[in-house]
């Protein structure tokens, strides 16, 4: 778990705090949801950053007054006094460390999508990435400077990776906490959301390792899923990979998918709270597909297919019988 000190020297966290949640919001909101203790750490670190950013309030002083005080101190005998640092000394030390970390922190290359936005990227090695809405992809420092093509993901993305053979055997790794995905093939989909993490392999081969589990090697049409609630993983063989990749064409596919799972995806992609009238309705299942270019059309299509009332009101999507 990251400590307050870790957050104070994390440039993404500082930018998030100072931008009032406009920068890197998806990353930090997801991190806060991973553990109830994270909220308290974030609040304390944020308060320190904001306090240090404010100008200090001191009594007026002139250069001549300061020089007079300095001369007076030099006339007094030097006595070594050991004491615990006061709060302002601690704050000053943190400020110095923060400034040094800001200058020395490696350059970060980041791509972030807004709610309802898809983005297509080409990485420096030619790897093609489709980045889903409300997602962030980044790497630190120069590309592959450590002899490995390593990137980080919050949200969801589809990767078409250029072969390692084209890059002197250099591995391609996706870090999507809690997942570590070692790419041995080419086409795959990665999900990193607060409630679950998943990898769907379309072609080639990948190795997946999640915290507290053993390494798994996936073959084409394998769907690996890690549930945050149980901290356990499982692998399923799927007949229709489009269930997990059709979002790239702005189409959502469903196969006996409960409304509660659809609601989670609506919240992730469009940033609106989904309200389902009752538990029975939440378990109602949907099969088929729906265009996702327009939120209103998507919600209406889901409601019509399920035979329920669906409406968008301000920042809510409401499903009722």
Could you please describe the fold and organization of this structure?
The chain has 321 residues and is an alpha+beta fold. Helices cover 32% and strands 32% of the residues. The chain is built from ten helices and 18 strands. Strands 1, 2, 3, 4, 5, 6, 7, 8, 9, 10, 11, 12 and 13 form a 13-stranded mixed sheet that branches. A three-stranded mixed sheet has the order 15-18-17. The longest helix is centred in the first third of the chain and has 18 residues, at 36-53.
Distance between the termini: 43 Å
**Assembly state here?**
single chain
Q: What order do the helices and strands follow?
A: HHHHHHEEEEEEEEEEEEEHEHEHEHEE
Q: What fraction, in percent, of the residue positions are helical?
A: 25-40%
> Which residues form runs of ≥5 with pLDDT under 50?
55-62, 75-85
In terms of DSSP E residues, the strand content is 25-35%
Biggest sheet: strands, sense, closure? 13 strands, mixed
Shape: globular
Could you give the topology of this structure?
Blueprint: H1 4-8, H2 11-18, H3 25-34, H4 36-53, H5 63-75, H6 87-104, E1 108-112, E2 119-122, E3 128-131, E4 136-140, E5 149-160, E6 172-176, E7 179-183, E8 187-193, E9 196-201, E10 206-210, E11 216-218, E12 222-227, E13 232-237, H7 242-245, E14 251-258, H8 259-270, E15 273-276, H9 279-282, E16 285-291, H10 295-306, E17 309-313, E18 316-320
Parallel strand pairs: 5-6, 15-18
Antiparallel strand pairs: 1-4, 2-3, 3-5, 4-5, 5-8, 6-7, 7-10, 8-9, 9-12, 10-11, 12-13, 14-16, 17-18
Helix pairs in contact: 3-4
């Amino acid at each position: 778990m990251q400590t307050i000190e870790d957050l104070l020297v994390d440039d993404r966290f500082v930018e998030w705090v100072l931008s009032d949640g406009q920068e890197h919001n998806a990353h930090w909101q997801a991190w806060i949801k991973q553990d109830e203790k994270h909220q308290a750490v974030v609040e304390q670190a944020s308060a320190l950053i904001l306090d240090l950013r404010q100008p200090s309030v001191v009594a007026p002083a002139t250069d001549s007054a300061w020089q007079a005080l300095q001369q007076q101190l030099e006339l007094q005998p030097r006595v070594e006094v050991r004491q615990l640092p006061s709060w302002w000394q601690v704050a000053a030390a943190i400020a110095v460390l923060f400034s040094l970390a800001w200058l020395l922190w490696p350059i970060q290359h980041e791509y972030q999508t807004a709610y309802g936005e898809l983005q297509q990227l080409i990485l420096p090695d030619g790897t093609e990435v489709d980045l889903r809405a409300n997602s962030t992809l980044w790497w630190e420092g120069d590309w592959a400077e450590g002899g490995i093509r390593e990137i980080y993901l919050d949200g969801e993305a589809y990767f078409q990776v250029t072969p390692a053979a084209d890059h002197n055997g250099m591995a391609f790794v996706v870090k999507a906490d809690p997942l570590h995905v070692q790419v041995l093939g080419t086409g795959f989909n990665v999900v990193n959301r607060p409630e679950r993490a998943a990898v769907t392999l379309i072609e080639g081969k990948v190795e997946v390792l999640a915290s507290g589990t053993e390494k798994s090697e996936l073959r084409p049409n394998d769907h690996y899923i890690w549930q945050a609630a149980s901290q356990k993983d499982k692998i399923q063989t799927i007949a229709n990979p489009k269930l997990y990749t059709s979002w790239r064409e702005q189409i959502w596919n469903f196969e006996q998918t409960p409304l509660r799972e659809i609601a989670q995806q609506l919240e992730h992609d469009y940033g609106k709270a989904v309200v389902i009238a009752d538990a029975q309705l939440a378990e109602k299942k949907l099969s088929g597909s729906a265009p996702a270019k327009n939120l209103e059309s998507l919600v209406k299509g889901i409601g019509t297919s399920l035979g329920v009332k669906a409406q968008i009101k301000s920042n809510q999507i409401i499903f009722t019988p």
